[in-house]
Write a structure and sequence with these properties.
By secondary structure, this protein is an all-alpha fold. The chain has six helices and no strands. 64% of the residues lie in helices and 0% in strands.
Length: 115
């Protein structure tokens, strides 16, 4: 999985989404070589803050998530009722964090902690 937990500590909603999704939708919700190349290009252009990278990636991966499955996954795992848009945002955050954790593990970027 290559997730380190440095950015996202709890992947339960994303994991539930992956369990509920069809094969095609599941593949769209996994980190890809294209995602990692995108991160590499971003970080080689100029130094970026983590929240900037997260926002960039979230906006890209949101388009790959099914709103209904996202809503059902969040409802089941977190036991809360949210709109499909909010659920997509939550799962996109987990996916973006996972992509960045994989990128760090592969040496594409270095996460510097503020302390």
């Amino acid at each position: 999985m290559l997730a380190s937990g440095k950015i996202i500590r709890d992947y339960r909603a994303l994991i539930k989404y992956l369990e509920m999704a069809s094969k095609d939708l599941k593949e769209m919700a996994l980190p890809s070589s294209t995602d990692l190349e995108y991160v590499r290009v971003l970080v080689t252009r100029r130094p970026l803050r983590l929240y900037e990278l997260m926002e960039d990636l979230k906006n890209i991966v949101k388009e790959r998530l099914d709103p209904d499955i996202s809503r059902r996954a969040v409802a089941e795992v977190l036991n809360i009722d949210v709109s499909a848009e909010e659920a997509v945002e939550m799962i996109a955050k987990e996916l973006a964090g996972w992509i960045l954790e994989v990128a760090e593990r592969l040496g594409i970027l270095k996460l510097r902690m503020p302390w």
